[in-house]
# Entry
Amino acid sequence: MQALPWWQTIPLFLIIIGILVIVHELGHYLAARRFGVEAPEFGVGFPPRLLTFWKTNGRLEIQGRKIVIPKNFVLPEGLKAGTWVTYKTETQNGKAVLSGLAPVDDESRGLMHASQVQLLDRGTEFTLNAIPLGGFVRMNEDDSSTAPNAFVSKPAWQRAIILVAGVTMNFILAFLVFIALAWWAPQSVTAATTTIVSVMPNTPAAVADLRAGDSIVSVNGVDVKNNREKMLQQLIANCEKPVKLGVERLDPRGRAQLLEITLTPKPSGEIACALGVRITVDVGAKITAVAPNSIAASLGLREGDALVKVGDFTMLATDGGAFGGRLRDEQDLAAHLSDFYKVDSLVIVRYLRDSVPYETKVKIPADLSPEQANLGLNFHMTLPQAFGEASSQMYIALTSVPRALRDMVGNISRGQSSGVVGPAGIGQIIAEGTPSGGLPFIISVIGVLSLNLAIFNLFPIPGLDGGRLIFVLAEMIMRGRKLDPRKEGYIHLAGFMFLLMLIFVISYFDVTRMLSGKSPFGP
# Structure
């Protein structure tokens, strides 16, 4: 399988992670600023700091006056709310702008005209840091702070909103990505057939002389043609027992022969019951509309089906390049049929319906008009359709979380791959998927990872946003009573250590898979 080299994969990985982190932290930052929480730093990456690439103006309140602190104004060390100072301002664009400030000690306070700082907001420094695996918003979170713009000084409901703002932004990003992809490009639908791509050595299939190109049509007399799930159900029900397979095999003249082959399926690694074969996967473009009285309508094709192939034209492009794995659309189909079908031709049309492959035949006339060249099919969604498709994808992802967690825990407890991927696994997915998927694949990865990051961060695990939210909600239920900050800190530290251990376990399986030469996209 073609894959990106490491020197391209790593920068692309960091860019994708950077986008997700910046969007997440931007949610926290905007919510904090909306509620007046001081946020001295917005960091991309983790320290040490490399540079400060932007800084906002600060704000000072003295004697009820709101004063702007210019971004280049250097404040005295140790200045905080409650400090007595002397100050000077000048008016710019109708606003009081700080031009001078000096702290006053207690002894000198009575000898000069001093005022007390009521609120101090130093503005925000936007920084680039050396460790490019995350980001942060540093807020005024000192548990002992009494400043009105400290995080701990805000009502519990405001702190709760600030905590969930990050995952909210990730949900929004994922939703917008899914809408854009559904609107921009045809949606792919896949279905595993029962046609064999390859036979692995020293397996039941190899012993029984099954071959690449064979198609399994029945198991013990039960029709399973092009229905992989039904075939697997029959094999699992008869695991480690002799079964009779009905197999279609093409002879040298291309005619189908029906053979009966007996073999005994057996468990293999993580597979409950296996023959030792790899199965063809059909990839089709989802049909969004079928024109009335068109060729496609006469074939019985309908909205929601997925077109796989028309004659020698496949909807999945295989022309290589950065977009070699893209799905073609109705314009590509029309151009091909107009260019290559100059005489009346009877061709096979392959399509998917409810994830099951079907075939039918259609006559392509030599005088095919430009209006009929796409067979009356459309593969692009309208904006409302894209909105509905994105909503459906979000719903499916959210409702599958309990099952995914159950499978992950079960697999890890059995010493098997967790079924999820960590940083190394994400890197492998990017490396192997980008050459064929191109830009649409990269964008889809951003959407999927953004959604997963949002879901994961909501888990009530100490150290995550969801874990911190639990403590705030508990405070609201107990009407303002807080847990000892030191104890809460220890709990979050324990949660952080648990997360590191989980990442280590997941990464172990990722690295093991990579070293064994296996792909995250299949066996």
Q: What stands out?
A: Residues 423-457 form the longest helix (35 residues). Residues 287-379 form a domain with the Pdz3 Domain fold (CATH 2.30.42.10). Confidence is low (pLDDT under 50) at residues 319-324. The chain has four domains: 67-120, 154-185+383-523, 200-277, 287-379.
